[in-house]
Amino acid sequence: MRNPVIGFVGLGNMGAPMAANLVEAGHSVLGFDIAGAAVNPPTGIKLVDTIEEITSACDLMLLSLPDGPAVIETSQTVIKKLGKKVRIVVDHSTIGIEAAQTSHELLRTSDVIYLDAPVSGGTSGAKAGTLALMASGNRSAFQEIEHVLAPMAKNRFFVGEKAGQAQAMKLLNNFLSATAMTATSEAIAFGTRLGLDPNIMIDVLNSSSGQNTATRDKFPQRILTETYDAGFTIDLLNKDVALYLDEVTRSGGRNAVAKAVSNVVSRMQASMPGADFTRIYPLTISE
Fold first, then answer.
1. Are residues 139 and 247 in the same domain?
2. CA proximity to 277, closest of 266, 72, 285
3. Domain range for residue 265?
4. What is the pTM of this model?
């Protein structure tokens, strides 16, 4: 599949810049979003009215959708379409293991390959084409279309051959990111109450064993500058941490830390819906 016609379903905050990078790399892209005419697609993307049009015209379908039900509904639309052209569906959404497995089974009944391929890196990574992509499913299919994914994701990892394994990887990543953010916020708030300078604390931590993604990026670049612009909302983080907690509990794993982090994140989502998740720190100070 050297020069596939690509259908991109979901042109939101992540999907639109990802699709734009495909166009910039020279690919032909059709786009669909449930918002229809209200969407302003990136230059070079032909907006179509239905998913069925993408199914008929495209070899490869990429998804960037908000949740599992949306992905499952799209998969059901694909298998119902007679005379479809699409062979591979690559799902960049974060939907949990069970929803990924359901989509895989649905599409398999129609000889369509489902690749579970969520991404990490936020809207800034989507715009820059520097996302981390983790994929699972059919290894040969991934190798066949990896060159198509490259303009969107600088770092690409094949993590397993079972549907849902990439979802597990994404969820545990986001759980660790949330843990670093919540724990660092509490630690910096503690130090501030005792008169320590937040900038000096971050410098010390980044030279010590306490360093993490929050101390290296979120605090110096987005919190201490008071820009709060990581490009990832607390709503999405709350969804992902809840999915992780559900999945780890279902697997019989330990979940004590996940429960604590989920409690913090869900309380912030309730009080500050739509806020950038880096605002966990000012919320921590105010409580």
1. no
2. 266
3. 168-286
4. 0.93
d(CA 175, CA 181): 10
Of 104, 131, 112, 137, nearest to 15 (Cα)?
131
Judged by DSSP in three states, 119 sits in strand
Q: List the one residue out of 29, 2, 4, 34 whose CA is nearest residue 18.
A: 29
Cα four-point dihedral sign 3, 11, 157, 155: positive
Task: Quick: pLDDT tens for 118-165.
Answer: 999 988 899 999 999 999 999 999 999 999 999 999 999 999 999 999
Exposure of 21 in the CB half-sphere (CA atoms within 13 A): 21
Can you give the CATH number for the domain in which 276 is found?
A: 1.10.1040.10
Q: Which of 66, 6, 9 is nearest to 33 (CA)?
A: 9
Structurally, how many domains does the chain consist of? 2
